[in-house]
Amino acid sequence: MIEKIQHATASSPEGAKGLVKGVLACAFQNMAFMLPTGLLYLLVKDLLAGSTSGRSTFYLVGCVACFVLILLTTWFQYNGTYFTTYKESGTRRLTLAERLRKLPLSFFGKRDLADLTSTIMADCEVLEKDCSHFIPGLFGSLISTVLIALSLFAFEWRMALAALWVIPVSAAIVVGSYRVQDKVQARTMAAKMACADGIQEYIETLRDLKASNAEQRYLSGLSDKIRAVEKQSIVAELETALFVSSAGMVLKLGIASVALTGSVLLVQGSIDVLTLFLFLMAASRMYDPMQGALQNLAAVIAMRTNVGRMNEILDAPLQTGSEQLTNQGCDIVFDHVGFAYNSGETVLRDVSFTAKQGEVTALVGPSGGGKTTVSRLAARFW
Questions:
Q1: At a CB cut-off of 8 Å and minimum separation 6, what does 114 contact?
Q2: Phi, psi for 349 (deg, rounded to 5)
Q3: Per-residue pLDDT tens for 262-315?
Q4: Domain ranges of the chain
Q5: Interatomic CA distance for residues 113 and 92, integer angstroms
C-alpha cells in the first residue's frame, strides 16, 4: 500500500507513511468532535426523565474529557499533517533535483527549462497543499463517517439509512466528473506552460528583441498569454465548483430526509422523540466534514495532472555508467590541423599544440584569428 501511495503522491516512503498517520489523525479528530453529541444526548435523556440528580459530576467530567480529547486529537492532527508534509516537501524537491542530475541528455530534449522549473516549483507546491490540507481531510472524513454510520445503523437502521443515502450520491457526482476535470486541468496546464515558455523566451532573447525594436510587440503577445491563464483558471474553478456545489446541495437533503423519515416513524410509534433528536444532531454534525471532503475530493482529482508530470521525471530511466572519473592521458593534440568552409575560405592552417589534461590552456589572438573555430573543433572531436 505504501508503494501505491508513493506513486499516487510522488512521495518518499517516509512521506507516504506520514500521510497515512495524518489521515488517521484526521479520522480521530472527527470522532472526537462527535463525543459532545453523545454527551448532549445523555443530558437530554435525563432531562426528559425529569431528574439529573447525582449525575452533575458525570457531565462535568464528560465536558472536560471531551475538551481534552478534542485538544489532543487536534494537536496530533496538526503535527501529523502540516509538519510531516512540509518536511516531505523539502525531500521531494531534493529528490527531483538529484534525479534530474542523473538523467540522460535525451530527456532534456523533451522538457524545456520553463517546464522543468514549473515541475520543481509549481507542481511541488500543489502537492504540498494537497498532502497537508486535502488528502488527510478527505480520507479521514471517509473513515470517521464509516465508523459513525455503523454506529447509527446499530442504533436505528431506518433513520441511519435516511441520514446516509445522500453521502454516496453526492460523492458519485464529484467522482463522476473526473474526466471533465482532467480535461479542464490539461487545458489549464497547457495555458500555464505557454505563459512560462513565453516568459523564459523573453528573458533569453531580450537583447535581440531590443535590437530589432520588437520588445513591445512581444510583450503584448505575452500579456495575452497571461490573460489566457487567468481566464482558463477562472473557467477551471467554475467547472469544479459546479460539481462540488451540486454535490453539497444533495448532501444538505440529508437533514430534510432525517426530519421527514423521523416524523413518519414518530407518528407510527416506531421511535421516540429522543431518537429523532439524536439523529438530527448526528446528521448535522456528520455532514460538516463530508462537505469539506467533497471539496477535497475535487482537489485530489485535479492533483493527478501535477503528479503525472512529476512521475515522468521520477520514472525516467537514469543515465548508466560509472560515477568514477578514470580517464588518464586524455590530452587534446592538434598536429598540423587546417580547416576551411565549403566556400573554400581557409580559416585555420597548420595549427599545432597540445592541451594537457589537468592544465589550463589559453587561446590568445586577434579578432578573427580562429580562436572560436579551434575551440569548437576541440570540443567536437574530444
A1: 193, 196, 197, 199, 200
A2: -145, 120
A3: 888 888 888 888 888 888 888 877 777 777 777 777 778 778 777 887 888 888
A4: 2-314, 332-381
A5: 19
Residue recorded with cell 505563459: 195
Neighbours of 313 (CB within 10 A): 19
- The pLDDT tens digits of the residues spanning 228-276 come to 989 988 988 888 888 888 888 888 888 888 889 888 888 888 888 888 8
> What is the phi-psi region of residue 344: left when phi exceeds 0, alpha when psi lies from -120 to 50, beta otherwise?
left
DSSP states of 44-83 as a string?
HHHHHHT--TT-HHHHHHHHHHHHHHHHHHHHHHHIIIII
Q: Let me know: does 160 contact 152? Beta carbons within 8 Å.
A: yes
Q: What is the pTM of this model?
A: 0.68
Sign of CA pseudo-dihedral 199, 10, 314, 322: positive
Q: Is 347 helix (H, G, I), strand (E, B) or coil?
A: strand
Size of the chain in residues: 382
**Digit-coded pLDDT (tens) for 39-69:** 888 888 777 777 766 677 888 888 898 899 9
- Residue 355 near residue 361, CB atoms below 8 Å: yes
CATH 3.40.50.300 is held by the domain 2-314: no
> Cell numbers at residue 226, please?
497571461
